[in-house]
Amino acid sequence: MISVSKLLCGLDAESDGLRYDAADGSKKPQITDEKQRRPVVVWNTTKRCNLYCEHCYAGADTEGAPNELSTAEGKALIDDLAEFGVPVLLFSGGEPLVREDLAELIAYADDSGIRPVLSTNGTLLTRERARELKAAGLKYAGVSVDGLPERNDRIRGEEGAFDAAVRG
User: Fold this and answer.
1) Neighbour tally for 76: CB within 10 Å
2) What are the structural domains, with CATH classification, of the chain?
3) From start to end of 81-164, where are the E strands?
4) Alpha helices in 30-92 (DSSP H)
5) CA 8 → CA 23, 32, 136, 138, distances in Å?
6) Which helix (DSSP H) or strand (DSSP E) does residue 41 occupy?
């Protein structure tokens, strides 16, 4: 998630506005500024997932892990990241939308001055949930799709995953 081109060459990437601009649309200092060299942090908030992707790097399953951070522990992590000056926190997983406290954690990150963004398979996203996350302060959501419907569903291990992601 750290753009080497941006860090070393000062080149802008297409998604920089989503990652680095202030919520009011004003530009933040370039990350090449020594004071702004902070990492975008990816937090795999859970190992639980509703799909069975061939390529899953998180080892996700329907059970999750017993040592996942609680809401209070997650907020303490966000406090530490804010103190360090992390500009962006990417909520990932497993599937982060299975966490009932996701909107609360997103709001906490936003209130702490961290730009909250989301990486999801999209299958659990509804209009209501999208509105809830936006109201909480979510700035960007990336929905993963692995090709046309048949290929996507095969890779995701679930028939209808493509249609559910597109609906989301």
Assistant:
1) 12
2) 1-33 (no CATH), 38-167 (3.20.20.70)
3) 88-92, 115-120, 140-143
4) 71-84
5) 25, 7, 33, 28
6) strand 41-44
**Two structure tokens written together for 157:** 């291990």
Those residues whose C-beta lies under 8 Å from the C-beta of residue 155, and which sit 6 or more positions away, are: 53, 54, 55, 146, 147
**Tens-binned pLDDT, residue by residue, of the chain (168 aa):** 444 444 444 556 555 665 556 656 666 555 555 556 688 999 999 999 988 888 887 777 777 778 899 999 999 999 999 999 999 999 999 999 999 999 999 999 999 999 999 999 999 999 999 999 999 999 999 998 888 989 988 988 889 888 888 887
Q: What is the pTM for the complete model shown?
A: 0.77
Question: Maximum CA pair distance of the chain?
Answer: 48
Backbone angles phi, psi at 64, to 5 degrees: 80, -165
Q: How far is CA 47 from CA 10, 23, 73, in A?
A: 35, 30, 16
